[in-house]
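Re: cobalamin structure - here you go.
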Amino acid sequence: MIIILHPRATKPKNRRFPLAALAIAAVLEGKEEYVIVDGNVDPQPERTLDRIMRETGAEMLAVSVMPGPQMAAAVPLCRDFRQKYPRVPVVWGGYFPSLYADATLNAPYVDFAIRGQGEDTFLELLAALRGPRKFGGIRGLSYKDDFGLRVNNAERPMRSPDDFPWPPYHRLANPEKYILPTFLGRRTAVHHASIGCPFRCKFCGVVPVHEGRQRMEGPERTAAILTHLQREYDIDSVQFYDNNFFLKESHALEQAERLTPLGLRWWAEGRVDAMLRYSDQTMRALRRSGATMIFFGAESGSDKVLAEMNKRITSSQTLELAARIRQFGIVPEFSFVFGNPADPEGDTRDTIQFIRRIKKLNPEAEIIVQHYIPTPHPDGMYGDVEGKIEFPRTPEEWASERWYNFTVRHDPNLPWLPQAVKEQIDNFELVVNSRWPTIQDIHLPRWGRNMLRSLSLWRYALGVYKFPFELQWAQRLVSLRKPRLESL
Ligand code: B12
């Protein structure tokens, strides 16, 4: 018996299919005995682990770990498990061990870290554990050798999602729990139609994990999986979690044509430059197929900063797209990485001005404000911050308040970001998001929306972002009045 554990990563209202756990389950399905334990659904996963151990025993605990809340939840679960069942190997896979393999292995309760695409590495590790216990040749694996020293094996070549079986949704304890209302529909599911990303943006945590590689599943398979989800679980909408859903126009067009008969509304991530190249006909086909909102990393309003980031787009392309996409009835969601380490103040000022230009061109455009937090990068971290930041050396340290707040970007506490600039960024975010409350918040009542809009009107018009106490108060009031979702 293999236990696949997906520690709690989010609030119940944001719960989605645990795609990473399902990807590993897919290659075990029909061949191995396994069970999925998901902390996003199971309120007491430690008890469930004990019950499984009592009833069946298990030869391995395989844990999926993303940085942030999921990592913080994984630590006590695995520590406790190791104490009770010291002979059962514990394996971590996912973005956390892929980015921080050494820190992962510094935990006495983790034996193996699987980096990058995990399916084949996991199967090879399983075979090695059952047989000769030789781990040196398993690509994508990090482990401790007989002397307790950390070994990071070579990278594994990436395979297409088409090479692996479909996610076995029916093996989740209660698949129904993952299909929840969103702004897209009453019953929204998630899907990941590719792996990796071919770009090498210097602020992005995907690059060190997938090294600028990407593979996409064929449109036929995507449509077949979504048809299955519609038939079995009655979904009416889907969020694509791909880093890059749109690359080749021919692929996007075929995808759109295959999705159209399903009548789903959908959200996905794309690139500004790629979508600008698409013809009007393709854009219309995307809209017809249900494209409702598309997320774009606009990142900055300065071409110098964009070049430093290696983003490979220009600010004028973003403006052009913001205006053009409007005519097709698709809402763009632009995300910005604030706080260029060389000039955080100037960068913040310029990016705020740029966002105001976008809003003029397309008031419906949604704005995501992110604080730049670096991740280790093979090409060097954006902002030349090498030596200015030292990452934690253990999962416990990553789970501490200081580093947790860093990871979730609430309070990154960066040596190059003065507190006053951080506050300016947060204040601007509050004003712009009150002036145009996101359509994604379906629990925001109409009166709350109207109140936020009218309270922020003068501030946005005059560009006064300082001390927005009344907006903080209004946001708190509105969220107190939202329906309680913890019990969903
Ligand atoms: C879905 C998602 C979430 C969901 C999680 C939902 C859930 N079901 O649990 C939510 C919304 C909660 C989330 C939150 C965050 N996320 Co997130 N998220 C993603 C996203 C979009 C998809 C992940 C996914 O499901 N992939 C599909 C699966 C199949 O792929 P995979 O996870 O890579 O799994 C493969 C391998 O990693 C490996 N593997 C994974 N687990 C395991 C386990 C074992 C045992 C093995 C052997 C192998 C293995 O094998 C799998 C198959 O090949 C990724 C971006 C992306 N497109 O990957 C970001 C991403 C993982 N998130 C990231 C981050 C940072 C966060 C946050 C911590 C911060 C933030 N603001 O975004 C927040 C936390 C917010 C908070 N609560 O405060 C980063 C991580 C890298 C980094 N920069 O540090 C990513 C890469 C986004 C990015 N570009 O920066 N996230």
